[in-house]
């Protein structure tokens, strides 16, 4: 970004306009579906076919208010939050410990072990879904949020460990040598010195874990039969089936289901993007 | 008290920091130290390893096992061993051939359309222009939405009568282009790909932006002083330097395609008549709808083997230089 | 330091505990009935009117009478319900009450030990034996019917008139002729939900019944052999029909009950007919507005030279099964919804045909009276194949017939792929 400032002033005006035209067209491509959902949610079904482009006349806010007033919607939000947060705490805690060992200890088989973890990046999650279903059945973890949390955490380990190991390795050794001389155990070094310094990296991996958990569909679809545990994506799909004749209401539900993710994105955009780029390039 | 294992360069550690182990021969001290060090390492690594082994590695072994049985999933574990019959049936099945074709089509379209589009945009947004931050925020937003929400939204947008897509065509007088997008075997894959592009191009754009910003501006300036035009600069400076990023993007795109499920499941369920089906969708159909768990496990195994072969080959032949680079940087803190 | 370490362990453990809180009534074993609070999970497929309102009304009425019972309803769309039930069966944890159509699917649920033996069905209600048969396995009753009926053609009299067809066809040749006339008159002859596949399998099954006779299907169920000439011929007839391109635009991705689906196409007067069960008029009305007096019913025509007759019916009904570990109140609730006044209310609304003796008089709709009459005079009966056979076979029938209709499979391929699945999985 700083580099662009150093460019000789002003590309031609025409070029600037054409750039904007291009970017603007793509922006419309992204925006129109979202706006269609947002505005469509305020219409009724007749308006959706008779007046597809205009503003609603009259407005039907009840599509939104009825969803917001329904207990099942909030239950799903709650489930999604609970599962996302638990997954994140678990995966970040376990990964931080493992990454610390990988970055700071010399032990036999370290690189082999690390490679086994990184190989996990290439395992398609879908491969594991059936055996996981059978395993969860054996453990009695079907219809139990742990069945989703543990699996999500396990599949989140490779990426999180890779990012955190890189970060820990970048922290100057002198910092902890001082702590060691002060009499810290390895755990003390980890907990008191490295973890606090790694806060930005922890934020990044947490954001990644939250987004991945929030959007997960395949696993909860297999694990949760009891609607009490359904998360937002399951709820959206079920809602579409149940209200298949009421498109406007489905749109309202979809839009409301988007809000938490978009709001979170607005807040955590920086962490998300740095995490994704770090994960992709290091993985 | 100091821990001897707490270093990657034990030989360079000041010996004085080690606790005075009174009355023990040096070899015993070393052994005790190593054991203690190993215990510490185990304490840090084991929890992750157990979870990983149990829920990531073991399922793959289980799938390999159950793929050898005829099993409807009821009761405890399978009993009716049939060897490789599930695989023979799978390889002979038209649906599976269709899955492979569809996967290949998506990979090719991604490489030819989605990645270049994202690359172009990244270069565009790397220029000085007003609203650049807003554009970037906007283009990336769809990536944050879940596949299910995207799928439901677009299934409504693409539906034949009330869908927005056809209504736009009607409004601009292009009625003859109207299609039942998701119902027509000839249009369903392009429609699916368009939705995938909507959802994912922002992610690749962000990757390329990060890669582009890692290229020193001076290189481009030097080239332009040497008289290189914009295209030549792109062709001979930017593109080669973006090589590693592009190769990683292509890699992610292929691995993502092998396990494509959510979006297809919600948009079309794999239809019409399997025209948009992917391996993961077929596996789900057989595993969770027809309760043919043995057969579905065979699909899992094939997916796993395909991704492994691809990943290893890709690392070996395409990303060799990149990983060598990575290994040497890793070597820094070895 | 060790305190710190313990801190992490505690955090990790509390995460696990946080997730581990109780998961509702599922799998909790039989709950004590006397006076204690009881929650019943009820899964049904009544996502359209009038079922939606009636079911909700029953729940309210029952809860008012039994204040200690809470009934939690999950309404799933037909296709979603079937996949969810397959998962539930494999997971061996079913909701307390769930929709069933009996047959091989119920048998598999019994094998998975998730359904309860309901004992003497007479203790629940006086069901007609035809309605009850599908839910009885080896002389025991594992489900109760809420309605029973048959599949036939629901047609738009006005559109038939417009095409110059005065009488509904009684033979396959006449039917093909009707389709051609409708097409020539610019009318979409047939509405079909290609995405869901089960509506398509009615055509193939009826043709197999008409050509090979009921015995051919019974025999194939045990020999797992569907390659006989009669099954291939059934496919050929269906291909002959599909080659006329008789279905509505976009039928391959059309659902059954959605606003641009099969029922809506007929219900809004866009398509001339559909092959569907006794619930068709109700769903047409809910999804597409309905065509009122213009709607007529005729049985699936006979095929020239076939072994079956036009009086043999393909059909079934909607019913409910109770999970093995459901509380006693679940059975009591089934008793409640099948008692005479509730059954009459159900029948009066047009949601279905009565499964309980004595409720026939509540049939208001003339077409449903015809269906009830045809069913009463039926000389043979076949349960929907995708329910009669185990799921693997039933789904393969749905799927390969869908391929035939879409033009990607030949009649021979349909016969052989069903046979292959039946032999491998049966």
From TrEMBL, chain A:
Keywords, comma-separated and alphabetical: Cell membrane, Membrane, Transmembrane, Transmembrane helix, Transport
Residue spans crossing the bilayer: 21-42, 81-105, 112-134, 146-168, 201-224, 250-268
Domain ABC transmembrane type-1: 77-268
Membrane-related topology note: Multi-pass membrane protein
PROSITE patterns, per the entry: ABC_TM1
Gene Ontology CC: plasma membrane
Protein localization: Cell membrane
UniProt-listed SUPFAM superfamilies: MetI-like
CDD domains per UniProt: TM_PBP2
GO biological process: transmembrane transport
Family (UniProt): Belongs to the binding-protein-dependent transport system permease family.
Name under which the protein is recorded: Sugar ABC transporter permease
TrEMBL record, chain C:
InterPro entries, per database record: Bact_solute-bd_prot1, SBP
Protein name listed in UniProt: ABC transporter substrate-binding protein
Keyword Signal: yes
Keywords: Signal
Species this chain originates from: Planobispora siamensis
Signal peptide: 1-28
Coiled-coil portions: none
Transmembrane domains' residue ranges: none
